[in-house]
């Protein structure tokens, strides 16, 4: 069997195992929650919907970190860890969409919009938007609880004081810190020094997204398999720049991506007022008049299609898009260079290379 064939078989089996674990876990929790009240079913349905499908990037990074450190294929520990990561991501997405006022997720209504629509469809009292936000916050919190419960099911390897537990705890704390820095920059950014905007935006993507998308999942899998400190440092040196390239690509797609493939309206990031690295470059490199236009329009929920096109033009003409693409290339090059130096067998190294290639060049 070739490396490519073995990779495909292992990865397919692992993704299926994670899906099965999530289905079984949520089915047992569904019966518990339904016993409280069947009115809670929409919360469980929202969680199930979010953890069904998707790229499974974090789970796969965890798996190949595990395999690279000598873990057995499809062992229960790494399947459970991957499931916990998927539940954590789902919680982060639910809360992120509320914070960003994003009405869509993966081509359909976001969770808070689904609850607002439920309120309207039922003709309930009071404000539908407030109900939608409150119900989605609770759904995200429940999902966070499920993630912790699942991770604890790993057993001794994930117990308090273990390397895996330390990584999992740090990952969650850093995401919350990065999320706060993100919303802080939206409101404080216009009053802060423009010269530091790119640096602040890079710090945000590092802690809000990059570390929990690639670095921590890879290290988590390695730690569960008993990886050495040296290997874990190598994992981080590879996965952190990869995660930064991943988020920078996401930022570009948030402005220039095709809604058919991204599942979000064109220019959605601009309406949400995201002060990304792409936007920071534009604010720094555009003319004073164009920068004032960007500041005035960013975060406007009624941003017109013409406004979106004008912002796109500014981003392209001032060189901000090119500067971001250069950064993506630099981070990608750094990641692949570090991957080449990792002391891994052909199978996990090939798998990580393919994941990295798909991450850097993705269109959705």
> Counting H and I runs of at least 4 residues, what is the number of helices?
16
| Envelope shape | globular
Uncertain stretches: none
In what range is the share of β-strand residues? under 5%
The SS-based structural class is mainly alpha
Helix fraction bin: over 70%
Question: Which sequence of SSEs, written as H and E, runs from N to C?
Answer: HHHHEEHHHHHHHHHHHH
What's the CATH H-level superfamily name?
Answer: Farnesyl Diphosphate Synthase
CATH structural architecture: Orthogonal Bundle
Query: CATH first level: which class?
Result: Mainly Alpha
Query: What is the distance, rounded to the nearest whole angstrom, between the alpha carbons of the first and last residues?
Result: 32 Å
Describe this structure in words.
The protein has 364 residues and is mainly α. It has a single domain (3-361), classed as Farnesyl Diphosphate Synthase (Orthogonal Bundle), CATH 1.10.600.10. Helices cover 77% and strands 1% of the residues. The chain is built from 16 helices and 2 strands. The chain has a two-stranded antiparallel ribbon with strand order 1-2. A hairpin with a 2-residue loop joins strand 1 (104-105) and strand 2. The longest helix has 34 residues, at 3-36. The protein is globular and about 60 Å long. The model has no long low-confidence stretch (mean pLDDT 94).
